[in-house]
Automatic annotation (TrEMBL):
Species classification: Bacteria, Bacillati, Actinomycetota, Actinomycetes, Micrococcales
Protein name (Swiss-Prot/TrEMBL): Aldo/keto reductase
SUPFAM superfamilies: NAD(P)-linked oxidoreductase
InterPro entries reported in the protein's UniProt record: AKR, AKR_Detox_Biosynth, Aldo/ket_reductase_CS, NAD(P)_OxRdtase_dom_sf, NADP_OxRdtase_dom
Pfam families linked: Aldo_ket_red
Domain called NADP-dependent oxidoreductase: residue spans: 16-309
């Protein structure tokens, strides 16, 4: 695994980021420890979590490993602004809530700072200046080393950057959904990020499993699209233009003696502006497939064909 600077900042991240959204749900402590160990042995440094993941279980599990030592070798990415403590999704990006959630995350993670702290999503009901003031305070008090946003559109990203710029604070990153089956960010988010110098962390680079090809003959009973909290999100990525994209990925995989997942990740990791791919795996076998993508080189003509079949508009 390789590492690079996140956008124009000095923060270095591995080109694969280990996501923990399912820790405490489909990934128990034993699997989490094995996955984290294999990820670290492969050269991975960057781990992504959030206050709202599995009602805090993900952060607490990760905190067990952080407490074991080698904190200085990890790049911890955290997010605040979304919770599910009431049983439903609650968005609150007010200054008070963001800083309260940050303190809770630090306690769960057993660390005094996050390397990168992000506002988890945009909210219309809170002034952007107030939201950005929480990021400024986190930096000033040493609870975060770098700050950014998540799931912001292009204009939202530029607006946030403008406010932070007044305090001479760089907006370091935007964490967005991006894959061969979800390229909506191409139109304005990628250009906006390059304009302000923010790096992009791409979540769901396999389209919720769609790009692995496992849905080509139906919906497996144990898949994300079949059941669970995110079933609707995954199911919406099935059918339509996704089918032709998945077929193209499968054809490329067969020709290169690789798995469809390797092809899809190899394409995504070389996209301009993408600093790291946030990958969530449920077992060591899935992680091995993800890690193998680092050795998969797409010939220019195949990369172009995938680009053409997946391009929006």
């Amino acid at each position: 695994m390789q590492s690079a600077n996140l956008g124009s900042s000095g923060l270095r991240v591995s080109d694969l980021t280990l996501g923990t959204m399912n820790w405490g749900d489909t990934v128990d402590e034993i699997f989490a420890e094995e996955i984290l160990r294999d990820f670290r042995e492969a050269g991975g440094t960057t781990i992504d979590t959030a206050y709202g993941y599995t009602d805090g279980a993900a952060e607490e599990m990760l905190g067990e490993f952080v407490a074991g030592g080698r904190r200085d070798e990890l790049v911890l990415v955290g997010k605040a602004g979304i919770s599910r403590t009431t049983g439903s999704r609650v968005v609150d990006t007010s200054r008070g809530t963001l800083l309260s959630q940050l303190d809770t995350s630090l306690r769960r993670l057993r660390t005094d700072h996050l390397d990168l702290w992000l506002v988890h999503t945009w909210a219309d009901d809170v002034p952007l200046a107030e939201t950005m003031s929480a990021l400024e305070h986190a930096l000033a008090t040493g609870r975060a080393r770098y700050v950014g946003v998540s799931n912001y559109s292009g204009w939202q990203l530029v607006a946030a950057h403008s406010i932070l710029q007044q305090a001479r604070i760089p907006l370091t990153a935007n964490e967005i959904e991006y894959s061969l089956v979800e390229r909506g960010a191409d139109a304005e988010v990628l250009p906006a990020a390059q304009h302000v110098g923010a790096g992009l962390l791409a979540w769901a680079p396999l389209g919720g499993g769609v790009l692995t090809g496992k849905y080509r003959r139906g919906v497996p009973a144990d898949s994300r699209a079949a059941s669970g909290r995110h079933s609707g999100w995954a199911a919406r990525r099935l059918g339509g233009t996704s089918d032709s994209i998945v077929d193209a990925v499968a054809t490329a995989a067969e020709g290169l003696s690789a798995s469809p997942a390797q092809i899809a990740l190899s394409w995504a990791r070389t996209r301009p502006g993408i600093s790291s791919l946030v990958v969530g795996v449920r077992n060591r076998s899935q992680l091995r497939t993800v890690l193998a993508s680092a050795e998969t080189q797409l010939p220019p003509q195949i990369a172009q064909a995938l680009d053409d079949v997946s391009r929006v508009g």
